[in-house]
Amino acid sequence: MTDLAYMVREDWGQHGTGMAPQSKIIRDWLGDLPTVFATTDLKKYASLNSADREFVEYVVGSAHSAKVVQFQDFRQLRQPGEPVEGALVALHPYLEHDCQTLNDVVDVGRVSRLFVIVWSRKDMVRIMLDGLGAIDLHTGGAAPLVDPVQLEAAKCMVSEQYNGLSSGNGKAAVVQLVRAFTAEGYPLDTDSWLRAFFAAKGEVRHAESISKLVMEMQKGVKHRVRERYRPEIVSILRERAAKEPSA
């Protein structure tokens, strides 16, 4: 199992006043394990004005002494195998396949610790991390636990993601489930649905489809979709959640 934490860059920097104390918090969380940093582009990392490089310098003390690789080097850790000694630090991931790689690495659990410095609180990777139960080292706590009934609904969405969630049966599943839960008093909120989707092991490439559909529903868009579930679907999922071992 991978211990997971993150910090949003704005919280780390705090207008130029927080980098040193916040970096200490990160170092303390990482512990004495060997640490490997992953960047999207090693050439950009080498430049003096690199945001990735600046972060590493504050955390390690010298960018020259840090072991830095590209995200693609993480991909071997998506396969089952022997546990890897050490901690991984992801530097401002934003590309879809890099975020999915992190998702897969956490799922496999070969790495003991994974920290992510997130560029913006609005980034999908931050919501993904919240859905996976990561600790926000700035606040010292994790996001609220995903509602167990909403998690069962998200599992239904995940079961349809093989053909995509932007059209066809996948879209119908998302729209009908969100409608049914909204009618039951659940907030029509993108973050809570995305956190549930990631907690249900949804793929990053389909998260934008859910986000788009929920935001359209917030604006009053009436999607015409084929009915996929019985009218009492929320009650059915509530019963299913009650049977789960963690319930």
* Average pLDDT number: 93
- From the 3D structure, determine the CATH topology of the largest domain: Rossmann fold
Number of strands: 7
- Give the number of helices: 11
CATH architecture of the largest domain: 3-Layer(aba) Sandwich
Task: List the helices and strands in order.
Answer: EHHEHHEEHEHEEHHHHH
The secondary structure category is: alpha/beta
Radius of gyration: 19 Å
Beta-strand portion reads 5-15%
Given as residue ranges, the uncertain stretches (5+ residues, pLDDT < 50) are none
Number of domains: 2
Helical fraction: 40-55%
Q: Can you identify the CATH class of the largest domain?
A: Alpha Beta
What are the defining features of this structure?
247 residues; alpha/beta; Rossmann fold; seven-stranded mixed beta sheet; 11 helices
Can you walk me through this structure?
The protein has 247 residues and is an alpha/beta fold. The protein has 2 domains: 3-142, Rossmann fold, CATH 3.40.50; 148-242, no CATH class. The protein has 11 helices and 7 strands. It has helices spanning 9-13, 19-30, 42-46, 51-60, 96-108, 124-131, 148-158, 168-183, 190-199, 204-218, 233-242; strands spanning 3-8, 35-39, 67-70, 84-91, 111-118, 135-136, 141-142. A 7-stranded mixed sheet has the order 3-2-4-5-1-6-7, sandwiched between helices. Helix 5 (96-108) links the parallel strand 4 (84-91) and strand 5. Helix 8 (168-183) packs across helix 10 and helix 9 runs antiparallel to helix 10 (204-218). The longest helix has 16 residues, at 168-183.
